[in-house]
Amino acid sequence: MEIATPPAAASLAPRSAAQAMVPPSRFGDKAFEWLTLAMAMAVVLLVILIGWQLWRGSSLAVQKFGFHFLTTSTWDPVTEQFGALPFIYGTLVSSFIALLIAVPLSVATAVYLTELAPLWIRQPIVSLIEMLAAIPSVILGLWGIFVMIPWLRDYPFPLLKRFFGWTPFFSGPIYGTSMLAGGIIIAIMILPIITSVSREILRSVPNLQREAAYALGATRWEVTRIAVLSYARKGLFGAVILGLGRALGETMAVTMVIGNTPQIAASLFKPGYTLASVIANEFTEATTDIYLQALFEIGLVLFGVTILVNLIAQLLLKTLTTTSTTRAVQ
Amino acid sequence: MVNLIMASPDPAVVEHVERPAELSPTTEPAPPLTFQVKNVSIWYGEKRAIDDVTLDIASNAVTAIIGPSGCGKSTFLRCLNRMHELVPKTRVEGRVLLQGEDLYSSTVDPAIVRRRVGMVFQKSNPFPTMSIGENVIIGLRLNGVRNQKFLNERLEKSLRMAALWDEVKDDLHKSGTSLSGGQQQRLCIARALAVEPEVLLMDEPCSALDPIATAKIEELIYELKAQYTIVTVTHNMQQAGRISDFTAFLYMGRLIEFGSTTKIFTNPSQKQTEDYITGRFG
Ligand SMILES: Nc1ncnc2c1ncn2[C@@H]1O[C@H](COP(=O)(O)OP(=O)(O)O)[C@@H](O)[C@H]1O
Ligand SMILES: [Mg+2]
Fold it and tell me: Which domains does chain B possess?
């Protein structure tokens, strides 16, 4: 049997050698630390600067409307009444619809691509999805107006109305341009990013995890569930948040299909308006100071909503991960 | 194609079970066999990793597979529960019988095979999002067991068998990855035992562990063989000598020698075996 050399003898030689050497300079380490810190701080500073700029640009409006800006629904430049509630509502609802559609689709696509698809078909699908991401927003918007909306109006919407018309969400007349159409177009836009990030996350799940499940006699679906998805769920959640960030700020294509009507309606068939859309649409028309200020304040609100939603998501993620590992078996 | 060769169960199977008895008339009756591996060859694409291996694996005994790196130990072990099929483009020829049943018959579901033949890996792999307790009973849950009382009993039993109960009984709700390396490996053994397999396959289960944790696992293997048939891969000669009853020496995908561990280690009949065991391998 190979018996290890006595530790004393083993460690003596290297130690004396180390003593003979000049101690390594710590300068490189320090420089590296400061450099990376500076980079990190630059990002934080940028965020603060943007926030401050928006704040400054809207200070008059903030003073004039105060908290009412967030809670009232009238948007009338002529009488100089500005309330952002319909836009906040529109942004949140359209993004929520988008997530509802895009997350299952993206995650399922990612699972298919990493776990199930035959090898030869994977790369073509990945390339197609990347191409979807490369379509300019305005082109997608045009497609939305001329292809998607007429189709939605003729087939899926009447169907939804027939089966779910008894709920407030799918009641009332169908115009085509609508909150639902806006949500769908956002879903299409965030699908590629969620899919490709999810795919990377799933690919990073160690094979050993899959084998552990297979060795217990798990089927492919069970392996995906207990070894892959649960291992990756923190990362998948991150992918969803990334998509949500995009969804909240998505502007051009949404503007073209959502109907641009500042109203709060339960029915998703009714037109809506988002924070980003109103800025894009009305910036050039904002002739009075207070109008411009109000639009700046809309920007500030969008900034705040995005940060808030991300914070809530972070909190959710924390509770998600702590409860799962401590869940007792009894 | 594989299935063509392995047609329906044939009478030779029965005959084969009885054969060792006549071969060793002087000793007590031959031990019952768990696996009969007959002329098995395995390919990864064009590369043949196992070349015409035939051997029997006795029940309630520890069979060690030794040989230099890359000789096909893991591949051979994995063909016993069809785990090697997870690698695309693998191909098997020959037959593997588990209790006389052909594992590769077209009617056999690999998932069922793996429930009967459990496996422990080189690197411990508990499910990190599950608690210690859930890690152990996940196999039962996959089998549809919902009875909480039964699950709790089996949880304790499996952890006791894996000699881990006393160390974790107050921490069952903690994450499986909070344990030490050796404990994690025993957790994986408990997880494999919880579904009550007939066989336990172990692929170098101690190679990532320190000597104390290794000693614990070795002791555990010794105790488990009362109830289980164990096939273990090891690159550690001393370990094979300590824990196994039978030893198979593989070299470049071929079975060079197979016999009782005492015989292989004291009086090998092949020169190659002797060279490998004495460390004079060239
Ligand atoms: N997934 C794989 N794909 C292709 N060849 C493989 C794969 N796994 C193992 N092999 C080949 O099969 C042979 C046996 O490997 P393995 O069974 O892992 O050996 P051991 O466990 O004895 O080190 C090696 O030559 C190796 O290169
Ligand atoms: Mg190996």
Answer: 2-277 (3.40.50.300)
**How close is the nearest chain A Cα to the Cα of B17, in Å?**
27
Q: What is the ipTM of this complex?
A: 0.87
Q: Which residues pair with B249 in a beta bridge?
A: B66, B257
Strand runs (DSSP E) across chain A, as ranges? Answer: 75-76, 81-82
A269 touches chain B (CB under 8 A): no
Query: What does the DSSP 8-state code read for residue B43?
Result: E
- Alpha-carbon gap, residue B124 to B133, rounded angstroms: 16
Sequence-distant (≥ 6) Cβ neighbours of residue A148 within 8 angstroms? A181, A184, A185, A257
Q: Does B123 touch chain A (CB under 8 A)?
A: yes
Both structure tokens of B111: 């998932």
Does any CB of chain A come closer than 8 Å to the CB of residue B165? no
A209 to chain B: closest CA residue: B125
The answer to whether the CB of B127 falls within 8 A of the CB of A209 is yes
- At residue B179, the 3 state secondary structure works out as coil
Q: Which residues of B119-158 are buried (b: 16+ CB within 10 A; e: fewer)?
A: bbbbebbbbbbbbbbbbbbbbbebeeeeeeeebeebbbbb
- The dihedral formed by the CA atoms of A134, A138, A139 and A144, expressed in degrees to the nearest 10: 120
Distance between terminal CA atoms of chain B? Answer: 38
In chain B, what residues touch A227 (CB-CB under 8 Å)?
A: 127
Residue A329 has its nearest CB partner, among B121, B133, B175, at B133
CB contact under 8 A, B86 and A210: yes
Answer whether A4 touches B (CB < 8 Å): no
Matching residue, tokens 């105790």: B223
Write the CATH number of the domain with boundaries A54-326.
1.10.3720.10
Identify the three-state secondary structure at position B14.
helix
Instruction: Give tens-digit pLDDT for A68-81.
Output: 999 999 999 999 99
Sequence ranges of the domains in chain A: 54-326
Residue in the block written with tokens 């109907």: A259
- Residue B136 Cα to ligand 1 midpoint, Å, equals 29
Task: Quote the tokens at residue B121.
Answer: 């890996």
B3 C-alpha to ligand 2 centroid (Å)? 27
* Centroid of ligand 1 to alpha carbon of B50 (angstroms): 9
The Cα A301–Cα B108 span in angstroms is: 61
Q: What is the pLDDT of residues B34-75, one digit of tens each?
A: 999 999 999 999 999 999 999 999 999 999 999 999 999 999
